[in-house]
Amino acid sequence: MTDWWSRLGDPQLPALIGEAQQGSASIIAARAQVFAARAALAGADSATLPQVGLTAGVYRGVNASAPLGTGMNAGLQASWALDLWGQNASSVRQASAQAAAAQAGWHEARVLMAAETARLYLGWRSCLAQKAVIDSDRTSRTVTAQSAADTERAGLLAPATAALARAGQADAEARLAQQNRQCEQQFKAIVALVGADEPRMRERLGTAAVLPDPAVAGSALKVSAVPMDVIRQRPDVARAQQELVAAAEGVGVARAALWPSLSLSGNVLRNRFTTGGESTTFNTWSIGPLSLNLPLIGRGGLNASAEASAARYESAALGYANVLRRAIAEVEQSLVALDALRTQLSASQQAVAGYTRSFEATEARYRVGLANLNELEEARRLKLNADSGAVALQLDHLNTWIALYVALGGGFDPQIAPEPVRKDS
After folding, report:
1. Each residue of 388-411: b (16+ CB within 10 Å) or e?
2. Considering the entire predicted model, what is its pTM?
3. Which of 54-58, 116-120, 127-131 is predicted least confidently?
4. SS (H, E, C) the chain
5. For residue 294, how far is the Cα from the chain centroid?
6. What is the pLDDT of residue 367?
7. Ramachandran angles phi, psi of 82, nearest 5°
8. How far is the CA of 11 from the CAs of 17, 112, 205, 274, in angstroms?
9. What pLDDT does 64 receive?
C-alpha cells in the first residue's frame, strides 16, 4: 500500500503528500524520538559490556620514600558491572522495545499526515466540482431570468412570475459566491499545510473539478474480514504492543535493583616519576576491587519504583487491549460504510439521470409555453440537489477509502526507518 496514493490517478496528490510530510512538525518530532530511542538502546547495550577508558594524570609532591618530585601516568582503566539478576539484559530489551515503539509512532505520524493532506486536497477538488454544478445552475437561471424579463416587457408574463425568475438568479449568484469563498479557504489551507508559494501552487494545481474514481481507490484494498495479520499492519497497534513489552521489561529492571549488584574494576598504567633531575619509569597494574553493593537504607524508594513499574505494565496492558478493540472497530466500520456507499452510489447515479431528463423535458415544455416557471424551478431544484448530492457522495466514498487505508496501517513496515540526519542537511 505504499504506492496507493499514486494509484488514484492524480499525480499531484502523492507530490503534495510528500511535501506536507517533509514540513510536518509532528513527523519531525516523531523522527527525533526514533533517534533518541536508538541512542538509549545503544547506551543500554554498551552497559552490558566491560567499560574501558583512557586515563592520564600528573601530580607533584613528596612521600615517605621519595623527595619532592613530579609524577605522570597514563593507561587504561576498566570496569564491569556483572549482570547477576538480569537487570542489564532487561534494560536492553526495554530500550529495544521503546525504539520499536518510536519507529511505529514515526510511521503513524506519516500515515496520518498523508490522510490529512489527501482529505484536504480531495475536499478542495470536490468543492470545485460543487462550484461547477452551482455555476451551471446559475447560467441556466440567468437564461431563464432574461427570457422572463423579455416576456414581461412584451406583456405576456405577470410581474410576480418574472420577479421569481430574478430571485432564482440572485439566489444562484449568492450560492456561487459562497461556494467560491469555501473553495478559496480550502486552497489556502492546502498552501499552509504544504508550505508552498501560493501563485505557483495555483498554477500547478489548476482548477480542474475532477475527483478520482472511488472504484480505483478500492482496487488496491481488498478486505473481507479482520484477521490479526491485518491488525498487525497498524503502527498504533505495533506501538502499543512494544510499549507493553517495554513496560514488562521495566518491571524486571526495577525489581533487579532491589538485589545486590556486583562490579569489578582494574587498570594498567605506565608511570614516570622525576625528582632531583633523575627519572624513573615503571608499570603498574591492578585487578579489583570486586565490589558488592546491597542497598539497605532507602529501599522504600526502590520498592516504590518497582510498584510504579508494575502499575505502568498494567496500564500498558489495558491500553494495548483498547487499541486492539479500536483497530478492529475502525476497520469494520469502514467496511460497513463502503458496503452502504456502493448502494448509495448506484441509486445516486439513477437519480441524477432521472432528474436531468425531467429538467430537460420541463425546460423544453417551458420554452413552448406548456409548463410554467414554478414547474421549471422545481425541476431545476431537484436536478441541482441530485448533482450536488452525487459530488458529495463521491467525496464521502473517497474519504471512506482513506479511512480504511489508515485503519489498515497505511502500508506499515517496521523495517522502514527514517534516514539519519546528513551533515549537509
Report:
1. bbbbebbbbbbbbbbbbbbbbbbb
2. 0.81
3. 54-58
4. CCCCHHHHCCCHHHHHHHHHHHCCHHHHHHHHHHHHHHHHHHHHHHCCCCEEEEEEEEEEEEECCEEEEEEEEEEEEEEEEECCCCHHHHHHHHHHHHHHHHHHHHHHHHHHHHHHHHHHHHHHHHHHHHHHHHHHHHHHHHHHHHHHHHHHHCCCCCHHHHHHHHHHHHHHHHHHHHHHHHHHHHHHHHHHHHCCCHHHHHHHHCCCCCCCCHHHHHHCCCCCCCCHHHHCCCHHHHHHHHHHHHHHHHHHHHHHCCCCEEEEEEEEEEEEEEECCEEEEEEEEEEEEEEEECCCCCHHHHHHHHHHHHHHHHHHHHHHHHHHHHHHHHHHHHHHHHHHHHHHHHHHHHHHHHHHHHHHHHHHHHHCCCCCHHHHHHHHHHHHHHHHHHHHHHHHHHHHHHHHHHHCCCCCCCCCCCCCCCCCC
5. 46
6. 85
7. -70, 130
8. 11, 20, 10, 78
9. 60
One-letter amino acid of 138? R
C-alpha grid cell, residue 311: 502499575
Q: Which three cell numbers stand for residue 72?
A: 605522570
Terminal CA-CA length for the chain: 29
Contacts by 368-377 with C-beta closer than 8 Å and gap 24+?
372/161, 373/144, 373/148, 373/161, 373/164, 373/165, 374/164, 376/144, 377/164, 377/168
Amino acid at 49: L
